[in-house]
Structures are given as C-alpha cells and as structure tokens.
Specification:
This protein is of the alpha+beta class and 347 residues long. 12% of the residues lie in helices and 14% in strands. It binds heme C (2 copies).
Length: 347
Amino acid sequence: MKRLAFLGLAALCIAAVETAYDKTNFSSAGRVYQPVPTGHVVGKDNVPGAGLHHAGERCDNCHKKGGLAEAYLWTASGTLYADRAGTQVLPGGEIILQDREGNVISLTANAAGNFWTNAPIASNPYAVASHGGITEPLYEIGVDYLKPADPTDPRTWIYKAWVRNGTSIRPMVTIAPVGSATGNYMSCNMHHNPKGSRGALWVSPEPALPSYPARGLKYTKHIAPILNGKCVPCHIPGSTMTRLVTKSDLGTPSTSIDYSQGLDLINYRGSDTGGIVKRGVRSVVNTTNPEQSLMLQKTLPGAWHGGGAFWDQSSPDYLALKQWIAEGARNNLYSSSQRSLNLLLSD
Ligand code: HEC
Ligand code: HEC
C-alpha cells in the first residue's frame, strides 16, 4: 500500500523507472506495470487477406476446427474500436502481444477495425487453464501444477496484450490464453465487443463528449460520462480480481490482482457490494491542488497505471476533470437552469 501511494504521487517524476520483462513471473501481478514493448515493426504479424467481414463478432465462431473457416485458424483475432461502446472502429490502431519468451507480435487493425494473425505464441506449460481451468488456489485442489502441461495445448499459449493509438495505450490486465478446452483458438471479441460485458476493445485519446463548458462543470453531465466511458470495466463495484493464470499466481498469497485497486469510479462515494467495500471518485481528487489528484496523475503517459494512459495535459477530458476538481469536485447534478445548481452537497 505504501509503495502504491508513493508511486501514485511520484508517478510523473519517475516515468523513466519501469519494470523489466521477466519470464519467471508471467502473472497478472508480475506484469501489471510492464511497459508496452517498443522497437518492433508495427504490423509485422499481419497476415494478408481482406478480413472485412463480421467486425465485432467472435471470429472463433467460424475460424475453428470443424467451423466454416477451418482453413484459417488465427492465434489472435478481433476488432479494435475508438471507444468502449464500440460506435467507431479504429483502422490503423495497433494490437501488441508479448508471450512468455518475450516474443512480440504486432498487428494493425484494417478498415473494418479487424485484425488477425497466425503467428505462433510461446507456451507457458504452467498456465492454469491447461491444468483444468481451476479457479481455486493450488493447495485446495491437489492438481499437480508442478508438472508441466503439454506445450502443444493452446491453453498454455498465453500472452500479455496492449492496444495503442499514438500516446494512448491500454494494457490488458489479464494474461490471456490462446485456446479453449476444445483445442480451438479464441478471439478477443469473445469478451471484447460493443455488447460484451467488458465493452469493445478500444484505445483512443478522443474526448468522451464533443465539448465541455469552461466553467461550472457538472458531475452527472460532464464527469460521469468520462469515467463511465474510460475507466470501466476496471474501476467498478464488486469483485474485480483477475483469474489465476499461471503457477506463479497460485499459492498464498495469490499473485492474482484486484484490477480496481479498491477504487470504484462509477460511484462518487464508493460502494459496498456484497461486502466488497471500495472507495469512490471522491477519494482520488485533490481539490486544493487539482493536478496532484491521483485520478489525473495515474492516467497520463509515463505513469505507472495498470489501466494505461488516457490523455495528455491538453486533452479536453483531462482539462474537464481538472476544472471540475478545481471547482470542488462536487457530486452536482445537471440542471438546465443556471439559477438552480441543484447541488447534492453531503460530501
Ligand atoms: C460467420 C462466420 C465467420 C465469422 C464470424 C468470421 N469469419 Fe472470417 N471467414 C469466414 C469464412 C467462411 C472464410 C473463408 C472464406 C473463403 O474461403 O474464401 C473466412 C475467411 C477469413 C479471412 C481470409 C479471407 C479473406 O477475407 O481475405 C480473414 C482474414 C478472416 N476471415 C478474418 C476474420 C476475422 C478477423 C473475424 C472476426 C472479426 C472473422 N473472420 C469472423 C467466416 C467467418
Ligand atoms: C484496464 C483496466 C483499467 C482501466 C480501464 C483503468 N484503470 Fe485505473 N487502475 C487499474 C489497475 C490494475 C490499478 C492498480 C494498479 C495501479 O495502481 O496502477 C489501477 C489504479 C488506479 C488508481 C490508483 C488507485 C489507488 O488508490 O491507488 C487510480 C487513481 C486510477 N487507477 C484511475 C483510473 C482512471 C481515472 C481511469 C479512467 C480514465 C482508469 N483508472 C482506468 C486498471 C485500470
């Protein structure tokens, strides 16, 4: 906790300090602050083809053994958008994977937002899914995780992923496996699509709203759309623990992580869902020194943030948040009448 608080405050000053890639700890916790790989040729693993069809749908519904498109089995595929709601695709945006051997795979989205590759992804024979997809800690189940799984099982092919568009970078918190128990390869669109629980796979510095007033910002009208559009699905109420991924995630304590850091950004005052208590929006603002707000420091390029960088200091969303914080970071409702500000001022 102490370390995280320090990192939060010092995030911008220590941007040069980054954890190095380490194959011995290919786990959610071990990779949460891993910087996006650089120095590779962007799009080097694109595979030729039109691939303009079924944007947003699960590619693996057809691109699987015995499926309609059995001739084309992609190790990674999906659709990239400019927004989490998936209203706009993002041609040219980059999808980057790094496997346990350090191999970097780079894909670019085409005109339909689609990407796909058959580049091999290295095996981690200690991937939990390949030992039966167990979600309980090792000591409770008696499955022999010390014995490596078959490296030809696609569930041992796991990777850390990032999506990038200019300075906007979204690291995926979970380490994802390529395959399912049936041996078929999965698609990012399985979870990430406009209608999916996790929203579309997206990365863009585009503002959440077309414009913001210079003063008098309202939480409900201007701020909530930014936080709902960009900070979900990570900073939400309830359990947000990553699943167990590899042998190093097992044991006590588990290195599985809470990818909300106990912070709920869709509830101003935080939440208590089934006993899971989380701090709210109010806990990460600093009204006397708005730029020092953890909410702003964590989300700039170069900061150590499991969720990545969302904007820079001149972006409309950043400026709107900063202005609202400077105005007291109130839980104020929108009212079209200037005369009734309709403030909910219990905080
Ligand atoms: C409803 C079934 C279905 C879905 C869903 C589907 N595909 Fe396909 N796809 C096919 C079929 C069938 C072919 C083979 C066409 C052929 O043989 O000419 C194909 C071929 C392809 C090809 C190679 C041929 C070409 O178009 O150049 C690419 C690339 C491709 N699909 C990408 C994708 C991606 C990416 C997704 C997910 C966003 C996806 N497909 C989803 C059925 C599907
Ligand atoms: C992909 C998941 C993800 C998204 C999206 C995300 N975050 Fe995070 N965030 C994390 C993780 C993981 C941590 C814990 C590790 C860390 O401190 O970086 C975290 C930590 C934080 C913290 C520090 C909390 C504390 O008290 O220590 C703040 C503040 C924060 N995020 C703000 C934001 C804001 C604001 C947004 C949206 C603009 C956002 N995050 C989007 C994953 C995410």
